[in-house]
Amino acid sequence: MKGEPVTRAIKTNFAERYFSAGDGLLLYARDYGHDNPQTKGTLPIVCLAGLSRNSRDFHLLAEQLSTHPEKPHRVVALDYRGRGFSAWDPDKSHYQLPVEAEDVLTACAALDVEQAIFIGTSRGGLILHLLAAMRPTLLRGVILNDIGPLIETSGLLLIRQYLEAQTVLNSWDAAVESLKRVHGASFPALDQADWDDMAEAIFKEKDGMIVADFDPALIEPLRSISEDTPMADLWTLYEGLKPLPLMTIRGENSAILSPATFAEMAKRHPRMRSVAAAGQGHAPLLHRPDLLAEILGFINGIS
After folding, report:
1. Tens digits of per-residue pLDDT, 105-139?
2. Among 229, 223, 217, 230, which residue's Cα sits nearest to residue 93?
3. d(CA 173, CA 178)
4. Torsion angle, CA of 158/162/164/169, rounded to 10 degrees?
5. What is the rounded distance in angstroms from the CA atom of residue 146 to the CA atom of residue 53?
6. What kind and span of H or E run contains 143?
7. Is 138 strand, coil or helix?
8. 146 found inside a domain
């Protein structure tokens, strides 16, 4: 299957699920804790990654949530089309939010998820804005990770810059060092293990080299953006999240979610739990102890 990665990540505590999108494209998800009888009494958690990212972003968080000694949850983490183990789409025009939102609905039906708490990082959070309008009964609670109804153009330009600059690397050590060069200033809180985990989430082995694990066509919509490009305003869709328990995490050094937008989100959703990720940029790693504690508190408050 084109785009299928081979990684050195060790498979533990999850089942691999393959299913077909509405148009027949083969999609993939990791399913943690599904066979644990203790998770049957708690809400499942569905994790949605960023633009070029995949289910591996959530591996450490999913392990901790699905094996929690007191209240474990089933955790489903998706690979969108064109990322990770999901197939690359021959029609590149399908790499857009409405199609990916439909894919999430298809995944939930295929995996018997009737209601869940959703965690959306970056693009995943934008998808959740759409799902709140498309299928509000599916959502029991939402965590937005460094994303909101307004995206900073300067932040998108930075994302385009580092995605375009990613090159083929000859070792995993080189991949880690590349990430440190690009993101180190925004992520002083990370330790060596975090950088190693990030590399394994972002890259894959292919023909003996280390390459980014996504279809390069995903970058195309970003190429037309300039500093003067007006960004889409999703405040109307954000209204759909107001009936729900909501937590928004902002990276202290984020270039995507501005302090002003973060504050306005709290103003418009007075019950929103606002969390700052100290020493992290876009997008914060959720398994780190400070954020894990916040996530557990939020989830336990719902289920």
Report:
1. 999 999 999 999 999 999 999 999 999 999 999 99
2. 217
3. 9
4. 180
5. 14
6. strand 139-145
7. helix
8. yes
Please indicate, yes or no, if residue 3 is contained in any of the structural domains.
no
- Total domains in the chain come to 1
Q: Which two tokens stand for residue 295?
A: 């996530």
Residue 174 has which token pair?
């080189």
C-alpha–C-alpha distance, residues 157 and 163, integer Å: 10
CA distance 289 to 292: 5
- State how far the Cα of 155 lies from the Cα of 269, in Å rounded to an integer: 24
161 assigned to some structural domain: yes
How many whole angstroms from its chain centre is CA 101?
13
Smallest CA-to-CA distance from 234 within 152, 151, 154, 155 is with: 151
State the pTM of this model.
Answer: 0.94
Q: Give the max Cα distance, the chain.
A: 53
Structural domain contains residue 66: yes
Facing residues of 26 across strands?
A: 20
pLDDT, mean over the chain:
93
**Which secondary structure element, helix H or strand E, spans residue 60, and what is its range?**
helix 59-66
The pLDDT value given to residue 7: 36
CATH number of the domain encompassing residue 84: 3.40.50.1820
CA distance 21 to 46: 17
Nearest to 47 by CA among 59, 37, 39: 59
Domain coverage including residue 289: 14-302
Cα–Cα distance for residue pair 129/109, rounded to 1 Å: 19
